DNA sequence: CAACGTCATAGGGAAACCCTATGAAAGGAG
DNA sequence: CTCCTTTCATAGGGTTTCCCTATGACGTTG
């Protein structure tokens, strides 16, 4: 039994023909025929019932298929792991981080990682959570931090930290008591993450609540960065929302008032990776460091 | 990347030397060296740091190892599955069953299976649960039924049915109220499963409770079969324990009195199989039938 | 009935896997 | 420090696997 034989078998079973399997593997149809016949001869049992334009797995073929698939996938993952590691030296490990990562003690993630791994180049991609999630799902990057909820199909999600989302206003009367979704919908909203809009997880949570209340959120102003939104709020043009970590940082103007929602709203920061994927050593190390730093931040509060 | 290369790599990593790996694979040491060098050449990365009498995995080797192990194990399981299927016709499917299987409507398991699979020979091995568990773990049999708790290292356990364990006595005054472990320890115990003794799961549960109470269980008489124990109890020589299914069967003499424990005690009947192993079609079918029959029994109560 | 699509086989070449023999290098023992 | 032992690497040769093109057999489709 060889890997080539298993690959040929799996592809023939999946595509329904030796000819298609050959095309998939980039080899001649005769090679597929030979590979599978050799496997059948070795175990003295047919794997397919052949018919003109018809290929049906036998019971033996059915029994072998999951194992063959697992073996070939594992070998492919192994090859990928080797290529990833090879890329490590002189290469780049990419990791998706939150746009507001700085507010969670993550601004020196790059430095701390570099200090302990001077031979590894790293590239932290600051993106919106939905974008990080889809990039990880697509395999473009190996892992990253996101705010939940995100579409987690094919992703393994590890929640790390919860942070309250608060209402921010320059008008103290509007921060006198916890804000209902109705009040929120009626306010003059200034929202950030203009590019991602309503795919942003924090926005999604707000939009979902509004919808349940039969309302629709329509921001008056949309900007890209939270700092820009805060600047506008400070001038009394409108109100926004922000994470407690941002509220408690120096980025938040002193004269702004914040208040929680009547029904508390939280961002849950989570680590995502593709389900079943093995992280390369560098990314595993980086993810571990990011996690520790987040939990450090949580411990200090 | 080929299966032979992955096998050589895994064995070298596991044994710590090319020479040992060669012995394990039954090939020359030079072949191992060549296999691994070819793999390293293909990915342009060393997998081992070689030293005289020392072999250390590189970071790349560490990265590859789990995938290589998975690939080789999957291929072996595939080969096993093929051999199992080939052995099915005119072969024997073995399955471990409880010693007291008859009390759970399993006595006609063989017949029912044969009726639906006349071309498959089956061999049901009646053994103690601990024995079934270790035989499955060792791969001697593919699956079986056991009573919990058992040592489940490397086993996948699926609980199916719970049955109360009751105290049985000929003396009605001793069955007047639920029995404490202290009372139990003080009674004249007649226990079955003499051969397996305290590795029997039911006994283990009792022994654990006694130990927690600072007591030790010392049976006055030990026999092999529950029927033998019941016969002695009927004569007033001592008391025993038995599953409710046995108590409610015709095997239990009419004049015996049974009562539950003050702290209810149960046998949990479970299906065990080796973790990660794929059952051959015949064994899967047999296990499924056994499970349905057990649940039928449970439904009737 | 002819054309088409698919699988099986033949024969040949390249690569992988196997061997024995032997040398290089490092560790251990005395 | 020297000698011996153990382990890995390489060479050269033989066998098996994997690849190819060419071509025939068989069943389906129109």
Automatic annotation (TrEMBL), chains A, B:
PANTHER family: HTH-TYPE TRANSCRIPTIONAL REGULATOR YBHD
Alphabetical list of InterPro entries matching this protein: HTH-type_LysR_regulators (IPR050950), LysR_HTH_N (IPR000847), LysR_subst-bd (IPR005119), WH-like_DNA-bd_sf (IPR036388), WH_DNA-bd_sf (IPR036390)
Source taxon at top rank: Bacteria
Organism of origin: Halosaccharopolyspora lacisalsi
Name recorded for this polypeptide: DNA-binding transcriptional LysR family regulator
GO molecular function, one term: DNA binding
Keyword field: DNA-binding, Signal, Transcription, Transcription regulation
Organism ancestry: Bacteria, Bacillati, Actinomycetota, Actinomycetes, Pseudonocardiales
One GO CC annotation: cytosol
């Amino acid at each position: 039994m060889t890997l080539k034989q298993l690959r040929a078998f799996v592809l023939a079973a999946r595509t329904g023909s030796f000819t298609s399997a050959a095309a998939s593997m980039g080899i001649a149809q005769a090679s597929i025929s030979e590979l599978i016949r050799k496997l059948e001869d070795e175990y003295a049992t047919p794997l397919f019932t052949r018919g003109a334009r018809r290929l049906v797995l036998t019971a033996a073929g059915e029994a072998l298929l999951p194992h063959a698939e697992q073996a070939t996938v594992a070998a492919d993952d192994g090859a990928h792991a080797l290529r990833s590691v090879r890329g490590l030296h002189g290469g780049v490990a990419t990791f998706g981080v939150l746009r507001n990562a700085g507010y969670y003690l993550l601004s020196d993630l790059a430095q701390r990682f570099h200090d302990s791994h001077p031979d590894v180049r790293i590239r932290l991609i600051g993106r919106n959570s939905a974008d990080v999630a889809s990039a990880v799902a697509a395999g473009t990057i190996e892992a990253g931090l996101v705010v939940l909820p995100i579409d987690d199909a094919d992703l393994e999600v590890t929640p790390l930290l919860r942070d309250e989302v608060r209402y921010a206003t320059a008008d103290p009367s509007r921060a006198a008591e916890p804000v209902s979704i109705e009040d929120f919908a009626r306010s003059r909203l200034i929202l950030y993450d203009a590019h991602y809009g309503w795919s942003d997880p924090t926005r999604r949570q707000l939009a979902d609540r509004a919808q349940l209340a039969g309302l629709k959120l329509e921001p008056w102003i949309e900007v890209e960065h939270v700092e820009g939104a805060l600047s506008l709020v400070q001038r009394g043009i409108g109100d926004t929302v922000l994470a407690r970590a941002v509220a408690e940082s120096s980025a938040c103007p002193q004269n702004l008032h914040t208040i929680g929602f009547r029904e508390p709203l939280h961002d849950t920061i989570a680590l995502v990776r593709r389900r079943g994927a093995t992280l390369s050593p560098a990314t595993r190390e980086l993810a571990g460091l990011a996690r520790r730093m987040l939990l450090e931040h949580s411990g200090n509060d």
